[in-house]
Design a protein that fits this description.
The structure holds two protein chains of two kinds.
Chain A lengths: L1 E10 L2 E11 L4 E5 L6 H9 L6 E6 L2 E2 L5 H9 L1 E4 L11 H12 L4 H14 L15 H13 L5 E5 L7 H18 L2 E5 L5 H5 L2 E6 L2 E6 L1 H6 L3 H10 L12 H18 L3 E8 L2 H8 L1 H18 L5 E4 L4 E7 L3 H14 L2 H5 L9 E9 L6 H9 L4 E7 L1
Helix pairs in contact in A: 3-4, 3-5, 6-12, 11-12
Chain B lengths: L5 H4 L1 H30 L6 H11 L4 H23 L8 H39 L2 H7 L4 H39 L4 H11 L2 H27 L9 H31 L1
Helix pairs in contact in B: 2-7, 2-9, 3-7, 4-5, 4-7, 5-7, 5-8, 5-9, 5-10, 7-8, 7-9, 9-10
The chains are: A alpha/beta, B mainly alpha.
């Protein structure tokens, strides 16, 4: 959809982009990673036309932006939205005025229609009842959500997110990731995200591009970048990866992969069998919609805590996706896994998950898939087996 | 980076560089103003935004204008009386006060007071919007920042300046009356009859022309300084905004005095 062809840009004496080549695919989330000051935001600003390249071309559906006339560029700009790193909210305007501005100025809509659309977006992003507040009266998380609401209110085709989670706490960071992923799936827009949140950002991205010394040194899927043997890429990813997932308090995906490899080595050397269970919170979208993304992420965190508590000390648990958790269980066969699952379904109550006494009006729908690992089986095959319908281990609702 | 020999090393090339930079800057200001002016009339008309700016530039300046005008008129009354009484023509005080105010002091003092009160605020507000990427945000939303920020301010200044100048003139003449008649004993009838007989429509028109030109100068320079804060070679971020605000006040004040001279020489 968008292609950078040998784009170079110099700011003052600093060569920010050097013959940069990048492909952004339609309807996907592409994340740009790289060290601070590498020019990720500069690259993003080139896409929307806030900056123009010194040399090279940026193509939109095969047409160079530089060859478009003013009218075509304006039409193109209408299809974009940009969420700034520091939100760039208009501090002399109220929240309502901020969100409604792109509609009032850019589209010929009636006042009532604008108000409806703005309030709908505000409700979706848990921003109700703050219409009249000014940005300076809001918390960091709320400001982010107001900026997100403003970016999404025009239902754009392409949304550019410049470090959307900077300055947020882990739950809110993941709530923003969850929102981006949720809206991206729902509205099918193309998203380009600049982020340092590794590995969380891998869960929501279909493609990752890494910028280093002004050039894209890697483009591919999250799985491919994690497998990359390039020492620069590995050093960068490992450097940013936390030992524990900030959201769930359990290990991140890469730690899970490490545990799997260790268990595989034990299986091969000492014939110590092990199994893998993938737990999926099936109705996370429903929870997000009913109670908000922030609540959805809190539930996921508490569920992970309960899950870890119910497992043995030798079992390891790691985050595997936005709503998935992978457990590696040594010395466990199908029956053992079934029992673990049944115990979890029997003992866990929604009040414990929610950590409050009231009934929320919905249940947590969890499915678990099982795979007994055999020698020489790759992780991909195990994960595929565990998530296939034939290997469904149990299905339970926590109410 | 190419280094220049400096003013001592090569004065001619230094002069040439300065002239080129000044020309470029002047060209940019003129284009900036023309864009702002043309976009005032673009559809949809920004009526409410202009009214808000009239309130900010005009309405909120009334108190300070009245205060300055009253004391300026009173000082003119005092100075004028003691100068005129030497020639036995103190009866002309009303004419002296009114003509000084309507032709010169009214438009100039009004402009200078608005620069201090509203011009600096305009430069600072737009400058902060620039450094906090709010102007970039407007561009990403396909909203012309010049139309959104500059045009309403130019329109509001062009409407407010003549009205405030008129207010300044009236209050100033009242101030002259207070000292001339109230303190120094000139007959009120003589004072006002001299005002009426000496002031011609041409004087009033000239004063208004000046105030409209000053409005354009002040609004353009103050908006321009804030808008291009990020292009300053010295001072970034908050420091850049402070430099922009200072430049806005200094440049517009100096330009007001220069323009006043040029306009007076044409209008006389």
């Amino acid at each position: 959809m968008i292609r950078f062809k040998n784009v170079s840009k110099k700011l003052g004496n600093l060569q920010v982009l050097k013959d940069t080549n990048l492909d952004i695919h339609e309807g996907q989330v592409t994340t740009l990673i790289g060290k601070s000051g590498e020019g990720k935001s500069v690259l993003l600003k080139h896409i929307i036309g806030l900056m123009t390249p010194d040399s090279g071309q940026i193509l939109f559906r095969g047409r160079a932006l530089s060859e478009m006339n003013r009218r075509e560029r304006r039409d193109l700009k209408k299809r974009f939205s940009y969420m700034f790193q520091n939100n760039a909210l208009f501090d002399s305007m109220t929240v309502f005025e901020n969100i409604s501005l792109p509609l009032k100025e850019g589209q010929h809509m009636k006042e009532a229609e604008i108000a409806d659309r703005v309030h709908q977006k505000m409700a979706q992003l848990d921003l109700s009842d703050i219409d009249g507040k000014y940005p300076s009266q809001l918390s960091g998380g709320m400001k982010k959500r107001v900026a997100l609401a403003r970016a999404l209110v025009t239902d754009p085709e392409i949304v550019l997110f410049d470090e959307p989670t900077t300055g947020l706490d882990p739950i809110r960071k993941n709530a923003v990731h969850s929102m981006i992923s949720d809206y991206q799936r729902r509205f099918r827009f193309t998203a380009v995200v600049v982020s340092h949140e590794i590995p969380d950002i891998f869960y929501i991205s279909q493609r990752i591009a890494m910028l280093q010394d002004g050039a894209i040194i890697f483009q591919g899927t999250p799985e491919e970048i994690q497998k990359s043997r390039d020492p620069q890429i590995q050093q960068f990813i490992r450097g940013l990866e936390a030992r524990h997932d900030n959201l769930t308090g359990i290990s991140p995906q890469t730690q899970g992969i490490k545990r799997f490899r260790e268990a595989m080595a034990r299986l091969q050397r000492h014939d110590v069998t092990f199994s893998v269970i993938i737990f999926t919170v099936e109705n996370i979208d429903e929870i997000n919609e009913k109670a908000g993304h922030l609540f959805g992420q809190t539930i996921l965190k508490n569920f992970a805590t309960e899950l870890q508590r119910s497992l043995r000390i030798t079992d390891s648990c790691s985050r595997f996706g936005l709503n998935k958790i992978m457990a590696v269980l040594p010395n466990t066969d199908g029956n053992g896994a079934q029992m673990t699952c049944a115990k979890l379904a029997r003992q866990t109550r929604i009040q414990e998950i929610l950590q409050e006494a009231s009934q929320p009006g919905f249940c947590l729908s969890v499915t678990a898939g099982f795979a007994e690992v055999k020698k020489e089986t790759s992780l991909e095959e195990v994960l595929k087996t565990a998530q296939s319908s034939q290997n469904a281990l149990c299905e339970f609702r926590i109410c | 980076m190419a280094s220049h020999p400096g003013i001592l090393g090569s004065p001619i090339s230094a002069l040439g560089r300065t002239v080129i930079v000044m020309n470029r800057e002047l060209g940019r200001v003129v284009i900036f103003f023309l864009k702002g002016l043309i976009l005032i009339f673009s559809f949809p008309f920004q009526f409410s935004r202009i009214i808000r700016q009239i309130y900010f530039i005009g309405m909120k300046s009334i108190f300070v204008i009245c205060l300055t005008a009253a004391f300026t008129g009173m000082v003119l009354g005092l100075q004028g009386y003691y100068s005129l009484v030497k020639f036995g023509s103190e009866g002309l005080l009303g004419a002296a006060v009114a003509l000084s105010l309507i032709r010169e002091l009214g438009p100039v003092m009004t402009a200078i007071m608005i620069i201090g009160r509203a011009g600096s605020a305009i430069a600072a507000e737009i400058g902060i919007m620039r450094i906090s990427e709010q102007i970039d945000a407007l561009e990403t939303m396909d909203i012309s920042p010049i139309r959104f920020l500059v045009s309403p301010r130019i329109a509001a200044a062009v409407i407010s300046f003549p009205l405030l100048t008129a207010l300044f003139d009236v209050v100033g003449i009242g101030g002259g009356y207070l000292t001339g008649s109230g303190l120094l004993g000139i007959s009120p009838g003589i004072y006002f009859s001299r005002v009426e007989s000496s002031v011609l429509m041409q004087d009033i028109t000239g004063g208004f022309i000046k105030s409209i030109v000053f409005a354009v100068v002040v609004a353009t320079i103050c908006c321009y300084q804030g808008y291009y804060t990020h292009l300053r070679t010295k001072g970034f971020g908050a420091e850049g905004v402070s430099f922009s605000t200072t430049s806005a006040v200094v440049i517009s004040s100096v330009l007001i005095l220069i323009t006043d001279y040029v306009l007076t020489s044409f209008l006389l």
